[in-house]
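Lab manual, section 2.4: Encoding a predicted structure.

Procedure: take the sequence of the chain (802 residues), apply the prediction step described in section 2.3, and record the output as structure tokens. A sample record is shown.
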Amino acid sequence: MILNYFKIAWRNLLKNKSFSFINIFGLSIGVAACILITTYVLHESSYDEHIPNSENIYRMTGKFIKDGKIIPTIHFSSNTAPTLIKDYDEVEGSGRIQQVGNKHIRLEGEDTQHYEENFAYADQSIIDILDIQMVYGDSKMALSSPNTIVISETIANRYFKDQNPVGRSLYLGNNKTLFKINGVMKDFKSNSHLNYDFLVTFKNIELRTKRQIKWYETQYFTYVKLKPQTDVATFERKMSNDLVKNYYKPDYKEVGVYMGEAWDVTLALQPLTDINLYSSHIDFEKNIRNDIRIIWIFGIVALFILVIASINFVNLSTAKSINRAKEVGLRKVVGSTRTQLINQFLSESVLIVLIAFTIGTALAALFMPLFRNISGINLTIPWSSFAFIPSILVASLMVGILAGLYPSFYLSKFNPVNVLKGKFSSGNKSKRLRSSLVVFQFTISIILIVVSLIINQQINFILNSKIGFKKEQVVQIYGTDMLNKRIETFKGELKKIPGVSHASISDYLPIEGTKRNVNNFTIEGKISSDDMVSGQVWLIDEDYIETMGMTLVEGRNFMSGEDSDKQTVIINQAMAESLHLNDPIGKRITNTIHLYEIVGVVKDFNYDTMKTSVQPLCFFKGKSPYITSVKINTKDVSRVLDGLEAKWNTFVPNVAFRHEFMDASFAKMYDGVSRVKTIFTMFAILAILIACLGLVALSAYMVEQRNKEISVRKILGASVQTIFVLLTKNFLSLVVIALFIAIPTSYYLMQEWLKDYEYRIGMSWSVFAIAGISAVVIALLTISYHAIKSALIDPAKALRTE
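Recorded output:
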């Protein structure tokens, strides 16, 4: 019987080719989009789940709250990890990671310097806690000794192809110490928040550090592995209270800082598997690329796309009910039961969906390389996964049954007597359902249009707004720490190149990924931490402000000469405001150890993403030599770059010249958001396309049903314009209803999204006007062809059968 159902269903598909094509094509696109988005969502939500015992591993986080202002942090003292192991039985292991960034390496016995990225210092316990697997070497001893380093499998293949490099040695940058390769670790997976290629032992730092490290010196990530069955909430409260009371407050008190009632310090543990999606609020979080809210949005878009495609099926099935009415009547007369009819129509629905899911899965595989490039993630269709094919089959059966339920029950209830007498009418209920579903489709479409427009406007606003410095035509030259004492000479030579106006030596730049440091400051004479302000500490030279195109609003710049301005500081307006300094020049501030005189105030500039307001900052005169920035004032950029490279090769011929324009680096800060924008826009267009596809078929069928009515109207004198308005007004009224629902909904959603940005666009009425006009135009274009074609038809042909 089941085979017979599918045989009849196949014949109906072939008989109604246009109906079948619209349904299968629309569903196939929806399924392909759904698979692509689901692959993305599953990848992003599965971060670090592959690590054994990941449910017991945490990263330490903290919240410093002063006067209601929350300062989240993930950086802690190097004392934290050993103290957790010493003081708490619940802790099975704890370790530190300190991100280093990028360095040059030189293999022992070679002269060539190689630039590499993703360095970090790490404890041996990090390898144990995260169960980092080794290709070569003993994981239990990899970082336990001084002067040892672990490299990734990728790096090993790059420099020691088909060899075991354990026992070989290399130099890091200008360091004269040889680091022995003690292990080759497997590459971190793409769904891990860790992406290091070099792990350097902490033992060297510990040997160099002669003094006792204080708890307010924070620059390390701390990872904790708790024993199974530990009550995490109870442990967090106990840990937070103990560490603040026994360690933080005494260390601050030693330097004359008393943590008063205005401060609230809370330490917590963040689950390892939450780090990727729940850390977007933390400043200077370099390894995080996503946000749980984005994942929810994409999941909802995937669901909407599938629902819109299913709505097309329901609409077209109920619209064609008149064509199936006589079939139902005859089947009932010859003995078919309602159950058999329902099974027949459900079989047709399931067959259509099965075909659509098969084609959709093939389309997803076809477009996966394109989606991989757009998303920047190495995604693949999980063919080898045991659950993938069964999931596709189950999903197709569920969609087929759910989409086919209403049409099946609706068609199977026709009264055979009325149908065979020609008294059948499709009824108002089915018309109301179709209208409701069309409104739903266009509501979603309008919301997607508004969201796409506002996301695009916000990203363009960020990339093109005034940010307090001039990022255009600034070239960053990397690796200038290799020059050692010759770096000032190199800087002077660069300034002699025609087309170069300024040059500055500093790793601290107003773009993400460069060096950052934090300290606490207060006005001279203040002793309570209630009066302290947390601010950035940047080392710059006397040419920095001019090179970056920043503005001094008060005071002076640093003077040239190595011995000048050692005890002076330039602050930004946010620091002056936070310290309540109306006339800051000449005032002195302290970090509880040294006093510094304020000699200048620089206009606020954005040095972090525009999700946050400009925070307090202090410029100190000093050396941070890894990056040298060069300001160009000529259109002949290629000639200047050639000159820069020639100078570089003169000074360090064994090191490759590497550079990047600052505006390109700035754009990278928003690369993740830009990718999300592109992906969202792409799938929004797909959703609208699928909705239009259903509207095309529905309008075609409605016009077909009214051909005789239109012919009579034409004979009675109706014009083409009158006929066009008659056929389109119902659809346009549905679009207007959708507008009234979509506009307040999209306004609320975008208000919530824009709250993440301290600097954001205002939502203009023009955005909603554009979305509304677009929806009306899309609807008109979708139904106009059939409406105009029907209005121009010869009425004699339509009435010939009467």
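Check your result against the sample. The two ends are 40 Å apart (CA to CA).
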